[in-house]
Amino acid sequence: MQYFHSPVNGSNIAFDVFKAGTEKAIALFLTGRAEYFLKYEHFFNDLNSAGITVFAMDHRGQGASERILENPQKGYVENFDHFIDDAAYFVQKKVLPEKKSDLPVFSISHSMGGAVSFLLEKRLNLFNKMVFSSPMWGINFGHVPENIINILAKLFCTLGKDKEFVPGKKEYDPDSPFENNDITHSLENFEKQKIFLRHNPDFALGGPTNRWVVESIRAMKEIETSSPAFTTHTLLLQPSADTVVDNFRQDKILKNMKNSRKIVIENALHEILNEEKIHYDQALKHILDFLLK
Length: 293
Hints:
The protein is built from eight helices and eight strands. It is an alpha/beta fold. An eight-stranded mixed β-sheet has the order 1-2-4-3-5-6-7-8, with helices on both faces. The mean pLDDT is 96.
């Protein structure tokens, strides 16, 4: 585990490099909300075996990166652009200086990381190809329309509750049952992460705050608005049974993007890269075929 000081408030941001023996490419990997890159070491090992060196970082306020609020369990960001600022600094100061001149640079991201990486590419226009796994280009708010959620979250922020959990959310529950979880069908992977957090409780993160919701909705609107100008070669991996993010919003945005394609992983839940082997193997094959062929 290594750290760099963010240009935004000097926050300590955790990162590491997973080196391939014989490099064919390098890739930036960005996790989802409440995650940590160590969760994906199995995936990095598979990428390394295929010749892809991985540079991974934990977003500010989660994983091993510095927490922002006094209560470290609250998912908070003052401005969604700070996530992008951190990632841009990481790429420019840590990733690119390590790159051999002839190697392609890829981006692979999951969920919230898919929003960050999209806006990062909009800013830097850097990546040769991008893979988005269940990207947070829209959130599944259930039966409540996004505009109502946005109005309510903004109201709470105006009332000084910007750093409070959104209604119904709380700190991480180490006893949450596997049954009816919305992230994976794999009991083994589900339990593996619970054991990791039991031994490393500082990595745990609870629900989002009102400010996070307001900032995330703003970012997702920016993604939709700017998608027609997005020309980077893109692969979207979409689990058909995802209930965390909005697959219809993904489809709408992808139609605007000129060099894009979608692969649906049938019956998979949100965390494709932590799913059962049958789903994970499909996702890995599509990723490697897209990036290296």
